[in-house]
UniProtKB/TrEMBL annotation:
It holds the Pfam family Phi_1. It comes from the Eukaryota. Belongs to the EXORDIUM family. Residues 1-22 form the signal peptide. This is Protein EXORDIUM-like 2. Keywords: Apoplast, Secreted, Signal. Its main location: secreted. The lineage of its organism: Eukaryota, Viridiplantae, Streptophyta, Embryophyta, Tracheophyta.
């Protein structure tokens, strides 16, 4: 079963409605109900399957992001402080660490993939309850539904006597950066305001980090469609997808909010990571306040 990270046309149109109308929308209660299912907690291994051509620098941006989720060495606001919000969901904390990395640079399944291909790629390394298998597709790989209705997917599949989880995220650099790498690219819909500068100098990969962050949080809090979500189980609002488009304080649809700016590069970010990295991370729903929480 897969749960898509949706960016529908309606959502984009809402992003550019007047702020006064947005305030009315935000007044609606946001409560993610717990459906008494299993959450992913404890030490979780993240296995990465790279499909297509990624440079070593691109891979290091994403690996550093994952390692930053549990690092205590970065200054505040940190990537790890963002991840700590998941501890407020029932069951305690989860710690993510990079496990196997598999390179599929030869496009062995072609450059047009369907859902079954993603599951086949995710199955290249063992599924387990204590792991998340992540498929990352390069900028020239077309995935069924990519850009049209989703920027990534998380789901689960049976593995022997148990179940395992997987994530897919695509690099939108050539296909739909205005949809899946916003706010680092001009949006597809609405006023064409100047985009923010990507913190790692790669619009496609910095966009992938936003989508990965979304799906990691959604996965650990709703791995088998019986955890935390609002709405129908076939199209749920989850931990971060319930807060789409919010990155800093004062955000409203179409405006990401007040974030930090690197004085040297002019790049925008809201979280520090390991190895001097800076990232832009989306708001996450906080079960204690029943509101979307940003780092800045």
């Amino acid at each position: 079963m897969a749960f898509n990270y949706y960016f529908t046309t309606l959502a984009f149109l809402l992003c550019f409605l007047a702020p006064s109308f947005a305030a009315l929308v935000q007044e609606q209660p946001l409560v993610l109900k717990y459906h008494n299912g299993i959450l992913l907690k404890g030490n979780i291994t993240v296995n990465l399957i790279w499909y297509g051509q990624f440079t070593p620098i691109q891979r290091s941006i994403i690996v550093d992001f994952i390692n930053s989720l549990n690092s205590k060495g970065a200054p505040l606001p940190s990537t790890s402080s963002w991840w700590k919000t998941t501890e407020k969901y029932r069951g305690g904390s989860s710690s993510l660490s990079v496990g196997h990395q598999i390179l599929h640079e030869e496009y062995t399944l072609g450059k047009i993939l369907k859902s079954q291909h993603l599951i086949a790629l995710a199955s290249k390394t063992h599924f387990a309850v204590s792991s998340i298998n992540v498929v990352l597709t390069a900028k020239d790989v077309v995935v069924d539904g990519f850009c049209m209705s989703k920027c990534g997917t998380h789901g689960s599949t049976k593995s022997g006597s148990g179940r395992g989880t997987y994530i897919w995220v695509g690099n939108s650099d050539l296909q739909c950066p205005g949809q899946c790498a916003w706010p680092f690219h001009q949006p597809i819909y609405g006023p064409q305001t100047p985009p923010l500068i990507a913190p790692n100098g790669d619009v496609g990969v910095d966009g992938m980090v936003i989508n990965l962050a979304t799906l990691f949080a959604n996965t650990v809090t709703n791995p088998f469609n019986s955890g935390y979500f609002q709405g129908p189980p076939t199209a749920p609002l989850e931990a971060v997808s319930a807060c789409t488009g919010q990155f800093g304080s004062g955000s409203y649809p179409g405006y990401p909010g007040r974030v930090l700016v690197d004085k040297v590069t002019g790049a925008s970010f809201n979280a520090y990571g390991v190895n001097g990295r800076k990232y832009m991370l989306p708001a996450m729903w906080d079960p204690q306040s029943s509101a979307c929480k940003t780092l800045v």
